Amino acid sequence: MTVALHDFIVPAERAATGPPEARGTARDGVRMLVADRGTLTHARFRELPRFLRAGDLVVVNNSATLAAAVDARYRDRPAVLHFATALDDGGWVVELRAPEGVPFTAADPEPGTHIHLPGATAVLRAPWLPPARRLWIADIDTGVPRLLARHGRPITYSYVAQRWSLDYYRTVFGREPGSAEMPSAGRPFTDRLVTDLVAAGIQLAPITLHTGVSSPETGEPPSPERFRVPDNTARLVNSTHAAGGRVIAVGTTVTRALESATDATGHTRPASGWTELVLGAGHPTRAVDGLITGWHEPGASHLRLLEAVAGADTVRAAYRAALDTGYLWHEFGDTALLFHSD
Predict the structure, then answer these.
(1) Coil, strand or helix: which one is 276?
(2) Out of the domains of life, which is the source (predicted)?
């Protein structure tokens, strides 16, 4: 199958409609396609240690997933409100969706209008990323953490066949609540696999990046996201490179955070705040030598980030192989390990 980097079709049957545990597969038993210096290898995720080497550093995202979807009514129509990002002024970035997990088309959101929630109200202030109108800044008249704890559930989309509890959307690294959607590249890790990596001389270090919501409109840039690269992680990235080791990012979130903290010389420093960094062929990675990732939709900005890590040819070959051999897409699907092409 011929695959252009940003123009391909994912058959409907390739959507993972539920967690692998429901398919009789362990978290670390999902498939993993490894692309390394022109060679493609099919494996299972639990085999990750054999593709790394002593002295490598695996950087993970310790952001924990929120129960960020709440039933709502907008202009007397049923809806679901997704809480995407907490803002510094107390507002929230939100997305209005239909109960079926598809875009809300019953009425156009407008500034000043009210979205009714269980025991609370959200008032739309303005679009978050104009001219796009998918995401809005909203003011909520109650404490959002309490609202989500009482009435929230994980964000899901139409390809997920049923609702799953928040436990299925947690990773073993999640310690800092804040992600609207699961940092899904870390989902296949288990405690045993982490132990195997450490026993093989491979270090792990955390960053925090709180994810927003996916499904952007065509042409919509990646949303600004809150992140933190701690001092110890920055030191480990630099010392790993100095010793000839490789830095492997677990997910596009980790890649974005590390590269936001890395200067033009490749030196990584502690950093925190908001990142608007967009990586691609014109902005290759300086800190990240390899990337563990899920499979992304055609046109997704994440594909350009993959290209920034591994190069367009490697990404194209990996996607061609994944489509040809039955890999599964989305947060409960299969994975890839892509190394820098040099």
Answers:
(1) coil
(2) Bacteria
